[in-house]
């Protein structure tokens, strides 16, 4: 890599006892400047970041629903490096992802110039734990946790996974996530999914509200906004498909990421089979 801006903070985080670290904020400004009252959190592997991620942020910021009504908002791109020292003893792949997140953050800052864009690291896997770690960070920086709201930006598959009771056994979902749902909103875009129709996805929140999901409290529907994706092409974009296209030496992935990320992938020869490097 030509730059190693994230090598030190990444290594420090992996070896530290902390569970959340803010490693970058556009313009050098903190996420909490200008009286920010809501932080929209996009949690992903960013492997690589793509226009599907971009669409989630764009649609969330454009939405004037009961959730996204605060004018003073920040965006947090969140990367989980849980067990990074065991799963990936060489953190360069995380470093590359952070570099691509950095490129996306700066591009987002130019597009949504009134919003502060940050990059954070966490070592948690579950959203409920990620939320607590971010709120604790805010509290440690003098912010009243009850005066700021988190909104997680998710795809439909992630939404249903968050609300899947099997992930919280032997505890009850309604007990485990009650505090989370008090302090956190969920903003979701539907996806093109061969297993779940658009109609089923669009009816998911109303089904919760009408008590058709017995394990999910009906009042949680007030904290969920679900919209149709920005278009069929956006709904089909996935990081795995992009990696497969790159590995196959195809250029069909070029328009699935912002130009800066495309150029970085090509320059650093990311996702190519070793024999092609």
UniProtKB/TrEMBL annotation:
GO terms for biological process: ERAD pathway; invasive growth in response to glucose limitation; NAD+ biosynthetic process via the salvage pathway; pseudohyphal growth. Gene3D superfamilies: HUPs. Keywords: Nucleotidyltransferase, Transferase. InterPro entries: Cyt_trans-like, Rossmann-like_a/b/a_fold. Pfam families: CTP_transf_like. Residues 43-225 form the Cytidyltransferase-like domain. GO terms for molecular function: ATP hydrolysis activity; nicotinamide-nucleotide adenylyltransferase activity. One of its GO terms (cellular component) is cytoplasm. This is Nicotinate-nucleotide adenylyltransferase. It comes from Scheffersomyces stipitis (strain ATCC 58785 / CBS 6054 / NBRC 10063 / NRRL Y-11545).
């Amino acid at each position: 890599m030509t730059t190693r801006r994230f090598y030190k903070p990444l290594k420090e985080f992996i070896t530290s006892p902390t569970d959340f670290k803010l490693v970058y904020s556009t313009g050098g400004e903190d996420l909490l400047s200008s009286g920010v009252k809501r932080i929209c959190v996009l949690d992903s592997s960013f492997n690589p970041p793509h226009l599907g991620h971009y669409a989630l942020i764009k649609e969330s910021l454009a939405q004037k629903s009961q959730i996204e009504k605060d004018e003073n908002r920040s965006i947090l791109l969140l990367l989980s490096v849980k067990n990074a020292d065991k799963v990936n003893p060489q953190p360069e792949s995380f470093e590359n992802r952070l570099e691509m997140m950095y490129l996306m953050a700066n591009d987002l800052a130019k597009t949504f110039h009134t919003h502060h864009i940050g990059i954070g690291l966490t070592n948690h896997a579950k959203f409920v734990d990620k939320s607590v770690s971010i709120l604790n960070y805010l509290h440690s920086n003098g912010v009243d946790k009850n005066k700021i709201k988190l909104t997680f930006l998710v795809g439909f598959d992630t939404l249903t996974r968050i609300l899947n009771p099997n992930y919280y056994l032997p505890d009850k979902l309604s007990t485990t996530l009650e505090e989370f749902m008090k302090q956190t909103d969920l903003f979701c875009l539907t996806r093109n999914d061969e297993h779940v129709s658009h109609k089923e996805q669009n009816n998911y929140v109303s089904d919760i509200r009408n008590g058709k999901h017995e394990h999910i409290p009906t009042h949680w529907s007030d904290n969920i906004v679900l919209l149709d994706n920005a278009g069929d092409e956006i709904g089909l974009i996935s990081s795995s498909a992009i990696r497969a296209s790159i590995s196959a030496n195809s250029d069909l992935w070029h328009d699935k990421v912002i130009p800066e990320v495309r150029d970085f992938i090509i320059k650093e020869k990311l996702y190519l089979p070793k024999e092609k490097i």
